[in-house]
Amino acid sequence: MERMPIYLDYSATTPVDPRVAEKMIPYLTEQYGNPASRSHPYGWTAEKAVENAREEVAKLVNADPREIVWTSGATESNNLAIKGAANFYSEKGKHIITVATEHKAVIDPVRDLERLGFSATFLEPEANGLVDIEKFKAAIRPDTVLASVMFVNNEIGVIQDIEAIGHLCREHGVIFHVDAAQATGKVDIDLEKLPVDLMSFSAHKTYGPKGIGALYVRRKPRIRIEAQMHGGGHERGMRSGTLAPHQIVGMGEAFRIAREEMHAENERVRMLNHRLLAGLTSIEESYVNGDLDHRVPHNLNISFNYVEGESLIMAIKGIAVSSGSACTSASLEPSYVLRALGRSDELAHSSIRFSIGRFTTEADVDYTIQLLKDKIDKLRELSPLWEMFQDGVDISKVEWAEH
Amino acid sequence: MAYSDKVLDHYENPRNVGSLDKNDPNVGTGMVGAPACGDVMKLMIKVNDAGLIEDAKFKTYGCGSAIASSSLVTEWLKGKTIDEAYAIKNSAIAEELALPPVKIHCSVLAEDAIKAAVADIKAKQAGKEAA
Question: At CB < 8 A and 24+ separation, what contacts does B120-125 make?
Fold first, then answer.
């Protein structure tokens, strides 16, 4: 088999930490009971493991374990939060505020609610990817029932001011949902202090397994949601379906490790990011996408002008990265997130997302910088746009035949 | 996306990269596509007095299939008359490179580039005769 490329796509998914995998295995083969079984020790053991994990997830974000509802992942959590709260409180109003750069798992549920008679505002962020608080405030209407803003953007890594937005929502009686799939283990989250009502989590972005996530549902003041999955009444009726103890144990262990190690780990990742940033921005005509200060160190999204993204990805087979987000890289459309920042189509087309994490080394970063330098040189030799740029032609003034 | 071996070969070893003298009366230039759409091809052909294409060069901004399509046509063009060049169909390019349906537009662009370069040389030659 061909040697696997260096993995720099931690924002798409992370490897399961070996410590996590080890904890999960016995719940498949030995302690395989259904946590809902109340009549024998198989069930009791499984239930205990599930509740321990719930405590670990709650601890990472300083919440009460009773505020954590297991789901299949952040997509389900987002759907449950948005549809569940909008429908439950629809008598209060039918207007929703979100942001144009949200993940599709937020955009699409909101679009779905629009079809059902809700109206929605998709706020355009500033050119640095951040939401302007005044613009958010101006978007609030008397009938605004729900707002949804992601903590850390999956494509460009910017951190929104959740606290300020949350306070605005509180003042105006708007329920506030936050997609924190990309935030856990990267930014400190304290739900005792943060004015957030609903928060979505995913295990597999934080070194846990795929297929498991959670939704935080605030108890004080109590937030109610309508279930989207009906059945046995698991998770206090909010999400039916037999719990998957091995997955849940994995998420609990992953979040425990995140809580204990995130500060040291983030320092190390920050050093690597600085090294990567310095190396890649030394390439002529490179542009970092997203604010440089308000961002997680795990993400670096850069556009290289005059080279096309897909051919660049093809040229850098030695590393595994994304062009736009993994969910849209199968289509030929430029990233809608970069478009929302006002990036030109050309720059949006030539963007690469580098995302690093727990197992990235300095050698990986150095190899990446050299690889990018070599391949961009090669592709620019091939690029008629680069030639025009070198000749002093302003590409934006040329009349192109759009096709 | 999986690329065919032929696309990979042209992409990794592109043939005839470069430019010809655009002011040479025997050189035709075709530039097609748009940066906003993710691909721009520049194809240049040099036609000798016998009416045969003796040289062809390209530069392409675009995906691997776009680069491969333009690299391939520079090989095909050499030794052809401009009428033979004009008759090259995108389907032949797509077939040779085994392009998947989402990449057919790359072969269309290569055909357009040939037609634009041929039109340019014909216009230059018409201008020469008129003078």
Answer: B120/B28, B120/B29, B120/B30, B121/B26, B121/B27, B121/B28, B121/B45, B121/B47, B121/B82, B122/B28, B122/B82, B124/B25, B124/B26, B124/B28, B125/B25
Asked if B111 has any chain A CB less than 8 Å from its own CB, the reply is: no
Residue B130 forms contact with A (CB below 8 Å): no
d(CA A174, CA A318): 47
Cβ distance of B61 and A308 shorter than 8 Å: yes
Structural domains of chain B sorted by starting position, each given as residue range(s) with its CATH number in brackets? 5-124 (3.90.1010.10)
Q: Which of A187, A320, A327, A385 is catalytic?
A: A327
pLDDT, tens only, A309-355: 888 888 999 999 987 533 344 445 678 899 899 988 778 888 899 99
Judge contact between A96 and A84, C-beta under 8 A. no
Q: Model-level pTM?
A: 0.90
- Preceding amide of A221 cis, omega within 30: yes
pLDDT band at A402 (very low <50, low <70, confident <90, very high): low
One pLDDT digit (tens) per residue for chain B, 131 residues: 578 999 999 999 999 999 999 999 999 999 999 888 888 999 999 999 999 999 999 999 998 999 999 999 999 999 999 999 999 999 999 999 999 998 999 999 999 999 999 999 999 988 877 76
CA distance B35 to chain A (A): 6
Measure B43 CA to nearest chain A CA, in Å: 10
Which residue is catalytic, options B56, B106, B110, B113?
A: B106
Of A334, A382, A384, the CB nearest to B31: A384
Copy the structure tokens of residue B114. 């040939």
In the block, residue with structure tokens 């998914």: A13
Angle at CA B61, nearest 5°, toward B95 and A336?
100
Tens digits of residue pLDDT in A187-239: 999 999 999 999 999 999 999 999 999 999 999 999 999 999 999 999 999 99
| CB nearest to A308's CB, from B1, B14, B63 | B63
B87 and A CB contact within 8 Å: no
